[in-house]
Amino acid sequence: MTQWGDSADTRRIPVWVLAERRPGVTRWAEHVWRAVEVLEDAPDAPAWTLLREEAGRALFLAGRAEVALHPTDTDNLRHNLEAASPSLWVVLRATEAPPGMALHLVTADPGEAHLYADVGNDLLEALPLPPGLAATIAEFVARHYREPTFHKRRRERADPEALAFGRGGRRGTGPSSEGDED
Fold first, then answer.
1. How would you label 74-88 residue by residue, b for 16+ Cβ within 10 Å and e otherwise?
2. pTM to 2 decimals?
3. What are the distances in angstroms from CA 81 to CA 58, 123, 160?
4. What does the pLDDT look like over 72-95, one tens digit per residue?
5. Which of 9, 14, 41, 139 is the most exposed, having the fewest neighbouring CB atoms within 10 Å of its CB?
6. CA nearest 22: which of 63, 54, 68, 67?
7. Is 177 helix (H, G, I), strand (E, B) or coil?
8. 98 Cβ partners below 8 Å, 6+ apart?
9. What are the DSSP E strand ranges found in the chain?
């Protein structure tokens, strides 16, 4: 299924996310959430299946997401693969429905992850990139990466009359703006 912005070369890879809920350490937060792992394979279970609960901590299979690889994002993907510790970024979003969080997104694109870091309302976790997924992304980048080309732009000459006073002594009332009214 092609989604908005997808090209024929877009690749979508399914992954599963494990999330943990711990008791809050302040009186303002009843619980604290964090994504703990991204799995390349998982049992067929509904989202937010409770896997384990002990000492106030609960581990959930948060659900399934797709890591989208777009040919136009290969520069960012390449930088991620070349990093000291390649990552996947998981975005969890607060919701009214139990258990209180929803899996919103998993991405391998650090540029896309940065957009969610700036919002401030979502929980963003950087997790290690699983080896099988790293190999798939490396193959995708090798096939689609194009070295950026440099285009030297020629500067246009400044028009010294562009800001000049026109007829009537008012700015912008020169010959090019006849008929314009304030």
1. bebbeebeeeeebbb
2. 0.75
3. 32, 23, 50
4. 999 999 999 999 999 999 999 999
5. 41
6. 54
7. helix
8. 48
9. 11-23, 31-39, 49-54, 57-69, 87-94, 101-107, 123-128
